[in-house]
Amino acid sequence: MRSFIATGRVAAASPRARMIHSLLAGAALLAGVAALPQAAAARDIVAFSPNVEPGTIVISARQRKLFLVVRPGVAMRYAVAVPKAGKEWSGAASIDGKYVNPDWSPPPVVRADHPELPNFIPGGSPRNPMGVRALTLDRFQVAIHGTTNRMRASVGTAASYGCIRMLNEDVADLYDRVSVGTPVMMMP
């Protein structure tokens, strides 16, 4: 049994526009404006292997990035949290369910490490670690999902029990772009 019940404008930027964007981002960091917590990081368009079929999700555990291939040689890049040591997985999967504000019950492995957790957290609760959207995979108790405000800082790290964790604004963006059956490749 599962432990959960579970658009922004995109344009290809010119090299000059990317350079200006990078310079502005660097200036913002230097000015101390580094954290704009609700600004989605999902809108990065990057070059990607032309051998990957459009519509495929590729997750790089090493890079801690999820790529949605949008056309041959081009992908959207999202920052993610990946499974922590001992919980890693790799290989092929596919999306087998899509859920808005999914409920969550801690699976036994999480309960063992965190007995203080309640047995059930309803969808929409600010304490629900599934966040605003979940894309379940055809692997036991694994999903691509959002997060709580408290756990936002974990995105970009190896922190999960097998799931792929995204910022809520990013998983909502991805959710709208994919469907049940979307292929997913997890790379080490």
Quick take:
By secondary structure, the chain is an alpha/beta fold.
Structural descriptors:
single chain; 188 residues; alpha/beta; L,D-transpeptidase catalytic domain-like; 9-stranded mixed β-sheet; two-stranded parallel sheet
Structural account:
With 188 residues, the protein is α/β, with parallel strands linked by helices. It has a single domain (15-187), classed as L,D-transpeptidase catalytic domain-like. It is 17% helix and 27% strand. The chain has a 9-stranded mixed sheet, with helices on one face. A two-stranded parallel ribbon has the order 5-9. It is globular.
Q: How are the SSEs ordered, and which strands pair?
A:
Blueprint lengths: L14 H16 L13 E4 L9 E4 L4 E7 L2 E6 L2 E2 L7 E10 L7 H6 L19 E5 L5 E3 L12 E3 L3 E2 L2 H10 L5 E5 L1
Write down the domain tally: 1
Strand order of the main beta sheet, please?
1-4-3-2-11-6-7-8-10
The overall average pLDDT, rounded, is 83
CATH superfamily: L,D-transpeptidase catalytic domain-like
Q: From the coordinates shown, what is the CATH architecture?
A: Beta Barrel
* CATH level-3 fold name: L,D-transpeptidase catalytic domain-like
